[in-house]
């Protein structure tokens, strides 16, 4: 009897255990069904993962396909342009279309002086009671437009920047002799010579640009560029003056001279009309016509400076020289191989077609150019037939 009672207790314990397991399975199934019926709870449990990255991935899988974005990821970034990695000090605008110098103070001062002179002329010099005030004002505005256009072309144009050498840096190491650099600081790079119209011209090596410069070029210390047919770095336009903007620089000087001479003429006429012979001249000008007197003084100084500068450049154009060559005395010991006579020199300077820019600043920069020199254009290479190399 005791054995039977013991087995009965065991059977009852097994039945109770099975019943508890059945209740647990029913509870889990009911909870899962409740979760499936509640979308908010389902999303919360679905996002509960080992880390935020997995949660974000699960949240993205819950979003509609139209909101998930492209499966290939974000679009590739825009290619780097040459002007964005150019090692010179120029400032670029409009995606490399406009090139300015590094220091805008001279450019701003010149523009403000021109606009202020025109404003004073229209407000205080032009007499409404004169014979043709509208014609005088229109003529001054036309001259101002000419000055502004030539000023913009000279100050924002590529002056003839020569591309830097962007070959393999191993070829440009300081131990390389062929490109002009040596391991020793005391050894000079080998010189190259170019024969132009029977005159031997030396091609100097630029350590900054790693090139042998063309004969008439020079490395500008302000803009940090080698410029073809370098004339000067003009602080009044904050830009180098070279092969591709020299004629616009001459046009700027001519138009500015005509503009300030026009203003000076009418300012002096206005002063002479208003001048009282009985009063002291200086005190009357300062007290009665201060604006006209200041404008006349500014115009007189501008006319004197521009006239002397324009006369100097007219002489250089007739000789086919640059200001830098004249200052260095480049042709004192040898004839000028570029001299074609007065008529030929003027035609070459003012009417010949300008060459295209050597550097396309809007082009995509190569990887090695971005890393080392910032240019994807090959450097200047002189003609091999007319070139000889000697060790200096």
SSE layout and pairing:
Blueprint: H1 2-37, H2 39-47, H3 52-62, H4 82-85, E1 91-93, E2 98-100, H5 105-125, H6 133-155, E3 191-196, E4 199-203, E5 205-206, E6 211-212, E7 218-220, E8 225-227, E9 232-234, E10 239-241, H7 246-274, H8 281-288, H9 290-319, H10 323-328, H11 341-350, H12 367-373, E11 387-390
Antiparallel strand pairs: 1-2, 3-4, 3-11, 5-6, 7-8, 9-10
Helix pairs in contact: 5-6, 5-7, 5-9, 6-7, 7-9
Keyword list:
392 residues; mainly alpha; three-stranded antiparallel sheet; 12 helices; globular; disordered N terminus; disordered C terminus; acyltransferase; transmembrane helix; Palmitoyltrfase_DHHC; EC 2.3.1.225
Q: What is the string of helix and strand elements?
A: HHHHEEHHEEEEEEEEHHHHHHE
Q: What percent of residues are in strands? A: 5-15%
- How far apart, in Å, are the first and last alpha carbons? 126 Å
Estimate percent helicity.
Answer: 40-55%
Mean pLDDT: 75
Walk across the major sheet and give the strand order: 4-3-11
Protein name: S-acyltransferase
Membrane topology: Multi-pass membrane protein
Family: Belongs to the DHHC palmitoyltransferase family.
EC number: 2.3.1.225
């Amino acid at each position: 009897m005791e054995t039977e009672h013991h087995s009965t207790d065991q059977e009852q314990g097994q039945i109770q255990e099975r019943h508890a397991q059945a209740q647990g399975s029913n509870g889990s199934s009911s909870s899962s069904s409740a979760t499936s019926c509640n979308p908010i709870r389902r999303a919360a449990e679905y996002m509960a993962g080992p880390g935020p990255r997995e949660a974000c991935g699960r949240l993205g899988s819950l979003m509609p396909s139209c909101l998930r974005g492209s499966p290939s990821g974000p679009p590739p970034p825009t290619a780097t342009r040459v002007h964005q990695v150019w090692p010179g000090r120029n400032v670029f605008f409009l995606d490399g279309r406009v090139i300015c110098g590094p220091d805008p103070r001279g450019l701003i001062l010149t523009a403000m002086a021109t606009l202020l002179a025109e404003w004073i002329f229209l407000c205080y010099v032009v007499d409404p009671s004169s014979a043709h005030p509208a014609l005088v004002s229109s003529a001054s505005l036309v001259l101002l437009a000419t000055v502004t256009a030539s000023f913009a072309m000279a100050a924002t144009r590529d002056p003839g920047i020569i591309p830097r050498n962007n070959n393999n840096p191993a070829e440009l190491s300081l131990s390389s002799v062929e490109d002009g650099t040596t391991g020793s600081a005391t050894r000079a790079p080998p010189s190259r010579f170019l024969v132009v119209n029977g005159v031997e011209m030396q091609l100097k090596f630029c350590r900054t640009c790693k090139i042998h410069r063309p004969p008439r070029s020079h490395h500008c210390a302000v803009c940090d560029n080698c410029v073809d047919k370098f004339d000067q770095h003009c602080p009044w336009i904050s830009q180098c003056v070279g092969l591709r903007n020299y004629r616009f620089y001459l046009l700027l000087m001519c138009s500015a001279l005509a503009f300030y001479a026009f203003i000076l003429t009418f300012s002096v006429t206005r002063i002479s009309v208003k001048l009282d012979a009985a009063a002291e001249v200086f005190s009357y000008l300062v007290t009665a016509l201060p604006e006209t007197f200041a404008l006349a003084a500014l115009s007189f100084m501008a006319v004197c400076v521009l006239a002397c500068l324009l006369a100097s450049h007219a002489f250089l154009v007739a000789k086919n020289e640059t200001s830098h060559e004249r200052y260095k005395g480049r042709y004192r010991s040898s004839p000028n191989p570029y001299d074609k006579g007065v008529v030929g020199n003027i035609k070459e300077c003012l009417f010949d077609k300008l060459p295209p820019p050597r550097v396309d600043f809007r082009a995509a920069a190569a990887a090695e150019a971005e890393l080392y020199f910032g240019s994807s254009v090959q450097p200047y290479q002189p003609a091999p037939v007319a070139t000889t190399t000697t060790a200096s």
